[in-house]
Input
Amino acid sequence: MRESERGSVFLRILIVILSVAVVLSVLIPQFKEKREKEELALSRMRMSLLAEAQEAHLKAKGVYASDLDSLRAFLPQGEDFVSPTSGAPFQVSAVDSISYIIQSPDGHGLIRTGRISWEEK
Output
């Protein structure tokens, strides 16, 4: 192989590598943004299910549940009630017998006795 041919092959390989890098620099941020939106939606759906469980707990026992474990009997089976982003459990607390707070550990919102933070504007 002549020296000019080796240089040509090297240049072609370099162009392919740079082309792949440019494509990845566009696709990776889009993938991350899509994943973050899916995690946000899943987190908020889980908080809504927890709020529904709080209402069922109130109807059954006359007070809101003070923690996540107290709600287990009122939650759908097989659903994992941790944040999809960090894996930390949602914070559930009864402020008193007639109000509660459900909060995402990752700042995806909160529900305060039926008032949903991400729907308020």
The first helix runs from residue 3 to 61. The two ends are 69 Å apart (CA to CA). The longest strand covers residues 91-96. The mean pLDDT is 90.
